Amino acid sequence: MSQQIDANGQLRHFLTTEGLPPDLLNRLLDTADSFTGVIDKSVKKVPLLRGRTVVNLFFEPSTRTRTTFELAAKRLSADVLNVDMGTTSVKGESLADMLHNLEAMQADLFVVRHADSGAANYIADRVDDSVAILNAGDGRHAHPTQAMLDALTIRRHKGRFEPLTVAIVGDILHSRVARSQIHALNGLATGEVRVIAPRTLLPEDIESLGVKVYYDPDEGLKDADVVIMLRLQRERMQGALLPSEGEYFKRYGLTRERLARAHPEAIVMHPGPINRGVEIESSVADGRQSVILEQVTNGIAIRMAVMSTVLGAYHDAGREAE
Ligand code: CP
Questions:
Q1: pLDDT exceeding 90 applies to what percent of the chain?
Q2: Does domain 144-296 bear CATH number 1.20.810.10?
Q3: Ligand 1: which of 56, 57, 64, 179 to mutate, judged by most atoms within 8 Å of the beta carbon?
């Protein structure tokens, strides 16, 4: 059994989309869909996590992930603590000691973002059995709830994964989002997953993840049903991997002309933050085919689904929502 699935096949933590069984991936999407009724109501709350405590532990900046985790926990009626690691004094305390103090406050769930790959697994190995860990992005390793909200967005627009061609474009090398998307999309039996990037922004072993590699965006975008753009992750780059941002935009940026290579009904996605004029033209980011802001909204439902599943609270959210 993986670290995140217990002996009964239940999701105990949510650390990665790698190796998750298709039925579990589909169940999370179905659960998220059932929460849409809650999000669309005037009183946007269900009591599934009443009396439970969710702690947001963000060691790295975040806008979308932190706020949608907080909203999702509040929609489920949990108590939420936001521990901003940028302002919390650790005073020489080890990470393990700090976590044990938070456990002592009877926290049920830690949402963890960290700049180091493997940080969420490290914490999951050290917390008490009563605490669940959700990975909100660790280094270049994984961002599983982002991948699941992306899958939810794709399913809502396209219905099924099997006939689809999904193209992921940009800085694949440094992207935890791309890795998690590839694992989730392959687990959901997506027809073809392509990655499109300069050689310097692709990991050597990327084909082993079950993707087709393209260096030329005009070829790679041809007939794609879903186009996912990624930003250049300068904070994780060492050395000069690119000539300039202007040159990158000319060669890989998503313009209207380039998007015309994809299927006419292709959707355009981006996990954010978007860098206009670097990886995507404004007219495309704000255009008819863009679903970028829908991704953010779907993040609330997915995070509600993951939190209620790991805390064993989800039975019939549809009935709760009535
Ligand atoms: N997509 C994403 O993880 O965005 P934030 O860094 O704002 O959370």
A1: 78
A2: no
A3: 64
